[in-house]
Design a protein that fits this description.
Radius of gyration: 25 Å
Number of helices: 6
Shape: elongated
Largest sheet: 7 strands, antiparallel
Order of helices and strands: HHHHEEHEEEEEEEEEEEEEEEEEH
Strand content: 25-35%
Strand order of the largest sheet: 8-10-6-2-4-3-9
């Protein structure tokens, strides 16, 4: 039983390491990375395409944004690994994705008559034979497809042990291609229900559904009706330390300034003699939000507060004298005081969610 628990723990750790690798890749500034190639295209679109036409780009329009070297990056440097012996690499892509990723046929993959299924989706199987060496795979496509392809690898010579190594992204989890196997780290309760016999036993490489949009440029851009401004908004409270004596406050502004402070005082203090705490700021980038791509996000931590006490506060900029409206929070009471809270996560659009809220 102990060994089973340890194996489960190792599996969870590897999955989270894989997710962290994805985040690091998204932040990469390598000029030869998929991220930098897509970012260059986005900047070109913002400069040369009107807001009225930004979500009217076709697949052909998008392909014309890249030169041959950039297309090669998108076709081979998105997901890669080494194999020690000749193998069949199978790419399982959603059968209702209207536009086949440009690199599949160009890189020699052939659509088979095989299909793989889970509870909600049918995947068509594309295959290519690789010799020992590097396997380089491409983007999920430029369209807004929320089911990412996944991969299996099976040695041609069954007498040789197939070893996969040197993964990009790093920390790739390797499973077994079979009924009951999961294919998405961010939805691991969704498992395969039908797998052709030819694929059973192969090395299965799960992925993350969110990666499907890493190169999404077709109908991908968003406009918020609530863009940031020089006045603080999206003010949120949480704790990073003891809730009896601390409070963490976060908010956002546009990039007109990167200075932020909190002024706070006891609510019952008629003199309103405030204490001021400087906030740390961080620029956040949402490159597909074309009318508010970059913002400042601030965090300030108030400490040495009195327990069970109400405080008034404002957040803003003492140089520009632009402030939020006054709000109030109350610190926690003694540890023995009763309290309640609700915790919930991604609902996956379950039809029972309303019942759970009630």
């Amino acid at each position: 039983m102990k060994d089973i628990h340890m194996e489960s723990l190792r599996l969870i750790i590897r999955r989270y390491l894989f997710l962290i690798s994805i985040i690091l890749i998204s932040c990469s500034k390598n000029p030869k990375s998929v991220n930098s190639v897509i970012d260059k295209a986005v900047k070109h679109i913002y400069t040369n395409v009107s807001s009225d036409s930004i979500n009217s780009l076709s697949n052909e329009d998008v392909l014309r944004l890249f030169d041959e070297d950039e297309l090669q990056v998108l076709a081979t440097r998105y997901w890669s690994f080494d194999i020690n012996t000749s193998a069949i690499v199978s790419v399982m892509r959603v059968n209702n994705q209207a536009i086949v990723p440009f690199w599949l046929e160009d890189n020699g993959f052939v659509k088979t008559g095989l299909t793989v299924k889970n509870e909600y989706t049918v995947y068509e199987v594309w295959q290519k034979e690789y010799s020992a060496g590097r396997v380089g795979l491409g983007i999920n496509g430029f369209d807004n497809q929320n089911r990412h392809y996944f991969v299996s690898v099976k040695a041609i010579d069954k007498s040789k042990e197939l070893i996969l190594s040197n993964f990009f992204p790093e920390n790739q989890f390797v499973g077994k291609m079979d009924v009951g196997s999961f294919t998405y780290h961010d939805w691991d309760e969704l498992v395969l229900t039908e797998v052709p016999e030819e694929l059973v036993g192969g090395k299965l490489l799960p992925t993350v559904r969110g990666r499907a949009r890493e190169a999404n440029l077709i109908n991908a851009f968003r406009k918020t009706p609530f863009p940031s401004s020089d006045k603080p908004d999206q003010i949120m409270l949480t704790w990073s330390k003891d809730p009896k004596t601390t409070q963490s406050i976060q908010w956002r502004t546009n990039l007109s300034s990167n200075k932020g402070v909190v002024r706070y005082w006891k609510e019952d203090d008629s003199r309103k003699e405030y204490t001021q705490v400087e906030a740390k700021s961080k620029i956040m980038d949402d490159r597909m939000l074309y009318n508010d791509r970059t913002i400042n996000r601030y965090t300030a931590v108030l400490e040495n507060l009195d327990k069970n006490t109400s405080y008034s506060y404002i957040v803003g900029n003492n140089e520009t004298d632009i402030w939020s409206d006054t709000a109030v929070f109350k610190t926690a009471a003694d540890d023995s005081a009763p309290f309640s809270f609700t915790y919930f996560g991604d609902t996956h659009k379950t039809p029972h969610w309303g019942e759970l809220i009630d």
